[in-house]
Design goal:
mainly beta, Porin, 2 domains, 9% helix, 66% strand
Length: 242
């Protein structure tokens, strides 16, 4: 009589295997049935067992065909010190649910005046500006065509404030501080591989994991110069495992 060997796969990766009459792994989407007859030599069986294990590992590796790497820009408005229009550029890398980010943020408080008394052309004058350079770590969770993430980190917050001397001349003073930046993102992107579309309309090439995203970003920093704001966010890259 032969012994029926049953191999089932159900997890993220094979974590253990034992030969008793039963092989088991965790999380694959297929099953393998193998018949171990007494007439097969043990040395041959060991090679067959190794091939089965290698097959499972390769199949699992093929489930994730791309890294999660993307960049985004955000345009919005912040309140605090200072208060004004906010622009953010960030690059992000995700491993499992761990999200690593580099961020550059600008907050500008501006005023306007006419180019000349009789020429109604506005000139924008920056009265207060913050430049932030930061690194963040957080968690990101995606499902189908959307994702939410939470991040915090450490950064340099540089502030430039316009001053006026006794002669009426304007100049800027600069101060640098360490800050604790944070952000929350909620984004939408394509659910499955599809041709990349310029402006979301014009398709280019074949099916790909590369694509655009759209969403909202809540961002800010806690420091001597603190602020918080919200804005629209536009991204490009690989937003999930396809």
């Amino acid at each position: 009589m032969g012994t029926i060997v049953f191999l089932t796969c159900v997890g993220e990766s094979p974590v253990d295997y034992k030969y008793i009459d039963l092989y088991y792994f965790t999380s694959f989407k297929f099953r393998v049935y193998f018949f171990n007859y007494v007439c097969v030599k043990p040395a041959i069986m060991k090679k067959i067992h190794f091939i089965i294990l290698l097959w499972c590992v390769i199949a699992h590796a093929q489930e994730k065909t791309n890294p999660i790497v993307f960049a985004d820009i955000s345009l919005g408005y912040s309140v605090g010190t200072p208060e004004g229009l906010t622009g953010i550029f960030g690059v992000h890398y995700q491993h499992n649910n761990d999200l690593f980010s580099l961020r550059f943020l600008v907050v500008e408080d501006t005023s306007t005046k006419n180019f000349a008394p009789l020429i109604p052309i506005p000139i924008f004058i920056t009265e207060d500006r913050v430049n932030e350079y930061s690194a963040l770590y957080g968690k990101r969770y995606s499902s189908d065509g959307h994702a939410i993430s939470f991040s915090a980190g450490l950064g340099l917050v540089s502030r430039e404030v316009m001053e006026k001397d006794n002669s009426g001349n304007h100049y800027y003073t600069t101060s640098n501080n360490i800050g604790l930046p944070f952000e929350v993102n909620f984004k939408w992107f394509k659910r499955e591989k599809a041709p990349y579309r310029i402006y979301g309309v014009l398709p280019i090439g074949g099916r790909t994991a590369f694509g655009n995203s759209f969403g909202f970003k809540l961002s800010g920093a806690v420091s001597k110069t603190s602020y918080i704001g919200i804005g629209l966010c536009f991204g490009i890259g690989y937003h999930k495992y396809y």
